[in-house]
Amino acid sequence: MAIALVVIVVLLVVVGGYFAMTYNKLVRLRNRVETAWSQIDVQLKRRYDLIPNLVETVKGYASHERETLEAVIQARQQAIAAPDVQQQAQAENMLTGMLRQLFALSEAYPELKANENFAQLQTELTQTEEQIAFARRYYNERVLGYDNAIEMFPSNIVAGMFGFEEKPYFEAEEQSREAVQVDFGTSAD
């Protein structure tokens, strides 16, 4: 009887220890995902800060390209207002497309392309885009580790008991991978 009690106590300690370790692992993985997201957020805020300066610079040279400039501003506002990762990814894809169109304008306006301020802003934005891409990859790697942990047996039991849910990936849409089509219609000569 005493041996059975010791075995039961040992089993309870082992099972309890496993649950505690698994719970702590899941919390750690979830926190890493959230930290990775905050790194993306930092880079996105930097991007948002650069865009108004870029738009103002372009306005001076291509004022009749108002639709493109307004589309960039609107895409920026939607990206800032996005409430979750999936909507943020969609808004960022739209903003990236609009920025590509804005940069394509510089091909039609040699004075703009030669403008030192525009060139500097374009360089800074390009560097920021690279940092965003790195942060997205890092975030997605963290999401993969977290999602795997909450889906795999037996940690999925602990995840289910404590309400751990899958996190979405930050993915580019197909349309953001396509080449930009720009129509300059009435460009200044």
Could you explain how this protein is built, in words?
By secondary structure, the protein is mainly alpha-helical. It has 6 helices and no strands. It has helices spanning 2-61, 66-81, 85-108, 110-114, 116-151, 155-161. The longest helix has 60 residues, at 2-61. It starts with a helix and ends in a 28-residue tail after the last helix.
Low-confidence stretches: 176-189
| Helical residues, percent | over 70%
CATH class annotation:
Mainly Alpha
Q: Based on DSSP secondary structure assignment, what is the total number of beta strands?
A: 0
Q: What would CATH call the homologous superfamily?
A: LemA-like domain
Treating each run of at least 4 consecutive H or I residues as one helix, how many helices?
6
Largest sheet: none
Which class do the helix and strand fractions yield?
A: mainly alpha
Return the CATH topology: de novo design (two linked rop proteins)
How do the helices and strands follow one another from N- to C-terminus?
HHHHHH
CATH architecture: Up-down Bundle
Supply the number of structural domains.
Answer: 1
The coarse overall form would be rod-shaped
Gyration radius (Cα, Å) is 25 Å
Average pLDDT rating: 88
Strand percentage: under 5%
- Distance between the terminal alpha carbons, to the nearest Å? 98 Å
Task: Output the keywords.
de novo design (two linked rop proteins); about 80% helix; about 0% strand; 6 helices; mainly alpha; about 190 residues; disordered C terminus
How would you summarize this macromolecular structure in one to three sentences?
The protein is an all-alpha fold and 189 residues long. The chain contains six helices and no strands.
